[in-house]
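Re: beginner question about structure tokens

> Can someone show what the tokenized structure looks like for a real chain? I only ever see the sequence side.

Sure, here's an example I had lying around. Input first:
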Amino acid sequence: MTATSTAVLNGGIIGCVKTIIIPLTTIHPQPKVDFVFNKPSVCIGDNVVITDATDGKDGLVNQWFWDLGDGSKSVINPVTVTYTDTISYDITLYTINTYGCNSDTITKQFTVYPYPKVNAGPDRFVLEGGQIQLETVTYAVNPSYTGRRGLI
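And the corresponding structure tokens:
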């Protein structure tokens, strides 16, 4: 760095110049941010644990800045969240390592589903050995069934 000053002295212009050289000896790489969920999705009222998986490069990650997508924030790791609405949330994280290097910011989506609702229809009567078709109604995202569906 070079600093120069000028002044007028007795009608003449004089200047002073000062140069300082500071060698740059270490450049720390930027951490590569990532995080993982302990479940791929949850039903409303269930919790999810979100854990930092940042590569701190040559430093250790020691600061976390979470935006949990529901208006709440956190600075701890891991973070446990229980969502109260059935939508997809955008979870955002950036980290800082022990050298003060900030990572980029990463965003991942996490989906909270409603509990399925099942109705077997009106009460039905059947004679021993007989069969009857139930009038089932299911409200669910990608439902799966066990056993024989609809026949008793």
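Each token stands for a local structural state, so reading them left to right follows the chain. Residues 116-152 form one domain.
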